[in-house]
Write a structure and sequence with these properties.
Shape: globular
Structural class: mainly alpha
Strand order of the largest sheet: 2-3-1-4-5-6
Number of strands: 6
Number of helices: 33
Strand content: 5-15%
Length: 630
């Protein structure tokens, strides 16, 4: 025992000396930071703070963990730092920290910052290629790489296809493609035309798993490929994609008809003033094929229509039908949103005699007229020489133009039919109406109550129209307009004067109104205006009740696109529900309504504003007056 004492004594001395030396090296010996007694050196880098928070939380020190996370958030780390943290720890770590109530709100804030940094990172092919290198390791890094590859969506398709399936990384990449083909379908489709035969077969097999029925329209041209193997795989993919609604693939003609008809249907809906929920849903779905900054109703549908016609041309490149559809799509894209083209009526007479057109032009104009799209029709009519020749050689197109729902199409079509020497009573009537019409936006008020009218409701009625119109005239010194009283709903006189120089302005709520006491009289007034922009209908209208008035307005080609606002006591909202659900473009405003808030109610309930601008009305009136025989 004694012989061991010297050795023990020396060990104790060495241990004591080392402990003293260790304590002396502390940055604040005897003065440890208050509340931080876990680490000798408190974490100071973002990585160490996250690691320290994880360790502290596992030891039950949520107070320290929250402090580390809050320091990290308060330092506002950059996007690169946040992405490095995500790659080092994996997104699961930050999800756990965010879900811990004792670490709120710093845990949630840190997760939000990391997600924002991940979204801002460009989803480039080179980024995905680096992520593919991390596959096949069965680690946290691999899981994070897979999530980032999935978030890249279409941009990841090309790198995943290029990965060598014989390598561990390529095998995982192939599994990702097979399991998530729908996520990468637009990228796969973009790679399809340039791929070699084995590549096209592989991509077509993947697209068959995309669970997107619209994708069948893009695969359809390959079902008629010269390569028998590609055609067989494409047909199998189309059958899988359209299992709920099979398409006809017996002949190329049937496929072309399908593609062109769907393209025309998309063109038809872009100019409707009252798009249905299904049309809006289709447009949003088609928007997934486009960049976010280009999304709005109509643009996505037009882009898809062009793609469908291009697919049809791939099947039948020499078809006049497809070439005409391509011409209509180009016209609709160029003319959207539709506007009056400012054509000189006097020049039409000289062009009519020498006009020439081909068969494709005739089919294109007929196709555009049948679609009912003002954007396409007006743009085709702008080529006056060709349009005059088509109308001269195809008399069957005259009547559809003269009874078109869009007032601009009716007027321009009337001028052209008149220029080729065709006489029609509808042309004379239209010229008379347009030549004498007011330049203000026109409206019709239908209220059968005598004595009180809409004055008791204080909304867009006789009393309001007169007071607002008189206020406008007194302020501006302007005389009464030909078409009625200039009405300003929900806009001050100062705003009105400032807005006159702007095309898309609150001036759109200024109306020339005509008041009537019966539904039938209101219908007649609406049909005789240049372009009625609004009908205000009391729920207790007489001599055509509200339901009959709405039905007649929607049945006539001149008024089918006019917004109709039914107003009345709140109890009438349920009573008019059947009418509003049956016909598009009908709203209900309960009484009482304020003159000051009426404009806001139109906007909040998405009631379409006036179709024509002041400039368009002036140009159309000048065009009509030029057609009047001198």
């Amino acid at each position: 025992m004694l012989s061991l004492w010297p050795n023990c004594k020396s060990r104790v001395l060495r241990l004591s000396t080392g402990l003293v030396a260790l304590l002396l090296t502390l940055p604040a010996f005897g003065q440890l930071e208050e509340g931080d007694d876990l680490f000798q050196f408190p974490p100071e880098t973002p990585s160490k703070r996250v690691r320290g928070a994880v360790i502290a939380e596992s030891l039950g020190r949520s107070d320290l963990a929250l402090g580390y996370l809050q320091e990290l958030v308060d330092n506002q780390p950059g996007a690169n730092t946040l992405l490095q943290l995500r790659q080092e720890f994996g997104i699961g770590t930050f999800l756990d920290l965010s879900a811990n109530p004792s670490l709120a709100p710093a845990g949630r804030q840190l997760l939000r910052l990391i997600n924002e940094a991940s979204l801002r990172e460009p989803a480039s092919a080179s980024t995905v290629e680096r992520l593919i290198e991390q596959l096949g390791t069965s680690t946290t890094t691999e899981k994070d790489a897979i999530l980032r590859i999935l978030s890249a969506q279409s941009a990841a398709a090309a790198p995943l296809l290029k990965a060598d399936t014989n390598s561990p990384q390529g095998a995982v990449a192939d599994q990702i493609l097979k399991r998530h083909a729908r996520r990468f379908r637009f990228g796969l489709l973009a790679e399809l035309p340039a791929a070699d035969t084995p590549g096209q077969i592989r991509i077509l097999q993947l697209l068959g798993k995309a669970r997107d029925e619209q994708m069948a329209r893009d695969v359809l041209p390959f079902a008629f490929a010269q390569d028998a193997e590609i055609a067989a795989v494409a047909k199998a993919a189309v059958q899988k994609l359209t299992s709920r609604h099979p398409v006809e693939m017996a002949s190329d003609g049937a496929a072309v008809d399908l593609l062109v008809n769907e393209a025309l249907q998309l063109i038809k809906q872009i100019d409707t003033r009252f798009p249905t929920e299904s049309a809006l849903r289709v447009d949003r779905q088609l928007g997934g094929r486009m960049s976010a900054e280009n999304l709005n109703f109509g643009v996505a549908s037009l882009a898809r229509a062009v793609q469908l016609v291009d697919n049809a041309l791939a099947i039948a490149p020499d078809s006049e039908y497809c070439l005409a559809a391509q011409k209509v799509c180009a016209a609709a894209q160029k003319g959207y949103p539709s506007r009056w083209p400012n054509i000189d009526a006097a020049s039409l007479q000289g062009q009519a005699a020498s006009a020439t057109a081909g068969s494709v032009d005739a089919v294109a104009l007929e196709m555009a007229i049948s679609s009912g799209s003002p954007s396409a029709i007006l743009e085709l009519l702008v080529d006056t020489s060709t349009a005059l020749a088509v109308l001269r050689d195809n008399p069957g197109l005259h009547r559809p133009l003269l009874i078109a729902g869009d007032t601009r199409v009716r007027l321009l079509g009337s001028g052209m039919v008149n220029a080729i020497g065709v006489k029609d009573h509808r042309i004379d009537q239209l010229i008379t109406v347009f030549g004498a019409a007011a330049l203000n936006n026109e409206a019709v008020v239908i209220d059968s109550r005598r004595g009180e009218g809409l004055s008791s409701a204080a909304v867009a009625g006789t009393s309001l129209l007169e007071s607002a119109g008189n206020a406008v005239r007194m302020s501006t010194g302007a005389p009464p307009t030909d078409g009625g009283l200039a009405v300003e709903l929900g806009i001050s006189i100062e705003q009105l004067q400032q807005a006159r120089s702007r095309k898309d302005s609150p001036l759109s709520q200024s109306y020339s109104a005509v008041t009537t006491s019966s539904g039938s009289a209101g219908f007649v007034e609406a049909t005789q205006q240049m372009s009625c922009e609004l009908v205000l209908l009391h729920s207790n209208a007489l001599r055509w009740d509200a339901a009959s008035t709405v039905a007649n307005l929607r049945a006539d080609f001149r008024t089918r696109e006019i917004p109709i606002v039914i107003y009345g006591p709140p109890r009438d909202e349920a009573r008019t529900a059947v009418v509003r659900n049956r016909f598009p473009g009908v709203w209900f405003f309960p009484e009482p309504l304020s003159e000051l808030t009426f404009h806001d109610q139109l906007r909040l309930q998405d009631v379409p504003g006036p179709l024509l601008s002041a400039e368009e009305r002036a140009s159309m009136r000048k065009f009509a007056r030029t057609l009047i025989p001198q």
